[in-house]
Design goal:
The protein is α/β, with parallel strands linked by helices. About 40% of the residues lie in helices and about 15% in strands. It is built from 10 helices and 8 strands. The chain has helices spanning about 5, 35-50, 60-70, 95-105, 125-145, 155-165, 180-190, 205-215, 245-255, 260-275, and strands spanning about 20-25, 50-60, 80, 110-120, 145-150, 170-175, 190-195, 220. The chain has an 8-stranded parallel sheet, sandwiched between helices. Helix 3 links the parallel strand 2 and strand 3 (about 80). Helix 3 runs parallel beside helix 4, helix 5 crosses helix 6 (about 155-165) and helix 9 crosses helix 10 (about 260-275). The radius of gyration is 17 Å and the shape is globular.
Length: about 280
């Protein structure tokens, strides 16, 4: 099945719009099936119908980084983040570094990401991942943009390397997957935890507790679309509009009105990514 065919398979229904617009802080519009400006606009239109007014499309390899940077200029609702995903760092050389560094300085690229460590998949050796992670940390500090972290089964090494290198001013844990102890360490450090559809999964009890303890100014909402589609549509491909389901699930966990959670997610995205200062494409 092609990427495009998969992206159109059994998409969840578009929910009722949120009472306050929110931001999808991490999605992959290319993996959702978008290839051109018209398809990006159509996805943004569907998201807007659900109350997801803006989104950050994120790269995981060099081709995706080029595409994300370009796509962010097609529509004022789209922003980009670029980096090389840890599972793709086996062959991360000077040419790749030079290209990422060039792309990350474009106006509508608002973060260095996603980078970090992934010990679940065996695609790149841990040593190569760690070296690339350190390089991306330095890049984020040099360009003054947030560091967007992918952390899968690598919590202690991620925290250790951040400590050794010195974290950038703004650190985002994309699709946070740690326990409450790790969450408290991150919150104390001033870092931001981003919640994907996993926070709505019925068996994600530890993550439910994390969602309750994070201060209102230190969380984001994301889809990671087309992956991690929220309950009750787990296992289906998603799009940015699915962030509205996650906002409602997070509000239920935190026992807050939906409009408060949506407003916090939007305000935090504005602050973290400095979205209001980004020039038009």
């Amino acid at each position: 099945m092609s990427k495009r065919e998969q992206s159109k398979r059994e998409l969840p229904p578009i929910p009722e719009p949120l009472p306050v617009p929110a931001v999808d802080s991490h999605t992959h519009l290319d993996a959702c099936g978008a290839e051109n400006a018209a398809e990006v606009a159509a996805m943004a239109d569907r998201a807007e119908r659900a109350g997801i007014a803006r989104m950050v499309t994120v790269a995981d390899d060099l081709a995706a980084a080029r595409w994300a940077a370009q796509a962010s200029t097609w529509d004022s609702r789209i922003f980009a983040a670029v980096a090389i995903h840890p599972t793709r760092t086996k062959d991360f050389g000077e040419d790749e570094k030079s290209e990422v560094e060039r792309l990350v300085q474009e106006d509508r690229v608002v973060a260095v990401g996603e980078t970090g460590l992934d010990y679940y998949w065996d695609y790149s050796p841990p040593a190569a991942q760690q070296e690339a992670f350190r390089w991306h940390i330095d890049l984020a500090k040099r360009v003054g943009k947030p560091l967007m972290i992918h952390d899968r089964d690598a919590h202690e090494d991620v925290l250790r390397i951040l400590d050794e290198e010195g974290a950038p001013d703004t650190v985002i844990f994309h699709c946070f997957s740690g326990d409450t102890g790790m969450a408290r360490r991150c919150v104390q450090a001033g870092w931001v935890l981003s919640f994907a559809g996993t926070v709505t999964f019925r068996n994600a009890r530890e993550l439910h507790e994390v969602a309750k303890l994070v201060p209102a100014e230190q969380f984001l909402v994301e889809t990671d679309a087309p992956y991690l589609t929220p309950h009750p549509f787990r296992g289906r491909p998603g799009e940015p509009y699915c962030a509205a389901y996650t906002v409602r699930g997070l509000a239920e966990l935190r026992k807050q009105p939906v409009e408060e959670v949506a407003a916090a997610a939007s305000a935090n995205a504005d602050r973290v990514f400095r979205l209001r200062t980004v020039t038009a494409g």
